[in-house]
Amino acid sequence: MTATQAVAAKAVPDWRGGFGRLWTAAVVSRFGDSLRTAALPLLAASLTDDPLLIASVTACGFLPWLLFGLLGGAVADRVDQRRAMWAVDLLRGALMASFAVAVALGHATIALLLVLAFALTTLQTLFDNAATALLPALVPAEALAAANARLMTGQQFAGGLLAAPLVPALLLAGDAVPYVADAATYALAALLIASLRTGAPERPPRPGGSTLRKEMAEGLAPLRRDRTLRWLCTATTLCNIGMGALIATLVVHVTDGRPVGTAGNTAYAATITAFAVGGVAGGFLVRRIAERTGRIRAVLLAGTVQTGCLVLMGAVPALAVSIAAMAVFGFMGTVWNVSQTTLMQERAPEGMLGRIAAAFRTLAVAGAPLGALLGGAAAAGWGPHTPALLAAALFSLAVASLTPLIN
After folding, report:
1. Which of 169, 248, 385, 404 lies 20 to 30 Å (CA to CA) from residue 34?
2. Beta carbons within 8 Å of 205's beta carbon, 6+ residues apart
3. What is the pLDDT of residue 198?
């Protein structure tokens, strides 16, 4: 094997062993999550016609990142990440099974949906930070970009192309069916992660007097010092405010504010499926785009195109336009996410990736609950299509904030 061939081989993660199992667990779990996240807004819309209440379910799904995100990262850098992940998945599976029983018995309420969204995301703060920190232990540094792309592409394929179109059919079989399926995928993912042969990570000893509070603060420091991470985090925060507004009101946008029925379920499923199709396509091409433009310019390109998609959705409120715009939006979303995650993993000091990832996510997700409430208020006050225009304005600010990184 030549030197060039050896480098190319290292740049691709090995499916055997740890990465293959982590990928499978992530894809299986995303399949179940997508069934739930597609079904919950429809369930909320069947319980109330108030856009602000519907949006509040999404807001509660983001709020724990503000309260526990930094703590989750500090814990992820202290514990065996593999054990933390499977334990969290088992607990999430138990919660979903209980919720499925409540739905089947007709006891679902908006209050219960709010509690469920909050509890699942609280557990997710530990799981996601542990997963981000575990990946570099399973693949070589040269293969991180390819590994991130394959993870995100697989998740988009399972979540959007497989799960989303199934939701209307599953709901016809019973309101609780999507949640039963989600509980089962959590259990399967937990078994896969528990089967990893990765031992407890080797970490330098913590200095005397080190506390969780101090370690949480240490995760913020690199975001202040590192110019690239600082501006990238700022841009992602602005985008997530916009995403909060869009996601929380997407079902209202697609149904044009009318009561949800079978036709509305199908239109909503088609829209989120289009987003997933675009995301999968983006996963196949993101490496090529990043190689030609560089990671920062790839993020800038993605944000610019996504802004145009949002303007189109808000200005031309037709279902076909929304489906096409969401496909392109999803494509560029994968380009943004893969480039951003790889940059963070490459630039994080050793032994701090969990805390840095937590600080990044906490700051970036901080605006999502606000965006969800703003989107709900905009839809209630000015019509179901105005949240897309609000999101477009925020994405344009995000793009502008990245310009200092372009030399």
Report:
1. 385
2. none
3. 65
